[in-house]
Amino acid sequence: MVVWTESELSIINSIFSSLDYEDIGPKALCRCLIVYPWTQRYFGGFGNLYNAAAIKSNPNIAAHGIKILHGLDRAVKNMDGIKETYAELSTLHSEKLHVDPDNFTLLGNCLTIEIAAKLGDGFTAETQGTFQKFMAVVVNALGKQYH
Ligand code: HNI
C-alpha cells in the first residue's frame, strides 16, 4: 500500500483546494492533445480538433478537461484507497474506451506542467515530487483493470 506522509497529504490538499478546475482542466487536456497528437484518436466525436487553435477553442474538450479533474478529486478524497476508487473508471477506460494506459502518464505530465506554470515559485521541488507521486499512484490505479 502507498504510504503518505503528513507533509505529502498537506501538499496534495493545498494544490487541489486552490486549483481552478475550469482553467487548468481544459489547459491540461488541450496540451496533451497538441503535444501528443495520437491521443486525439479517442475524441473523434468531440468536434473540430484540426489544429491547436481549434482544440483550444473546442467546448467539448474544455468540458472534458474539467471532468477529468473532478475524476482526480475522487483520489484526493480517498488517498488510502486510490486503487479501489478507480476500479470502475479503469474498467471503463480499458474495456469500453480502449484508451492505451500509457496515455494516462502523458496527461499527467501535461497537468504537472500546467500546475507548475500556475504556481510559479510555489511549485517547489518538494511540491513536484509529491504531485508526481500522486499522479503515479493514480496512473497505476487507472491501469489496474487492463489485461
Ligand atoms: Ni478519461 C471519460 C477520468 C485520462 C479518454 N475519463 C472519463 C471520465 C472520467 C475520466 C471521470 C467520465 C467517465 C464517465 O462518464 O463515467 N481520464 C480520467 C482521469 C484520467 C483520464 C482521472 C487521468 C488522469 N481519459 C484519459 C486519457 C484519455 C481519456 C489519457 C485519452 C487519451 N476518458 C477518455 C474518453 C472518455 C473518458 C474518450 C469518454 C468521453 C465521452 O464523454 O465520450
From TrEMBL:
It comes from the Eukaryota. GO terms for biological process: hydrogen peroxide catabolic process. Keywords: Heme, Iron, Metal-binding, Oxygen transport, Transport. GO terms for cellular component: blood microparticle; haptoglobin-hemoglobin complex; hemoglobin complex. One of its GO terms (molecular function) is oxygen carrier activity. Residues 3-147 form the Globin domain. It holds the Pfam family Globin. Belongs to the globin family. This is Hemoglobin subunit beta-1-like. It comes from Solea senegalensis.
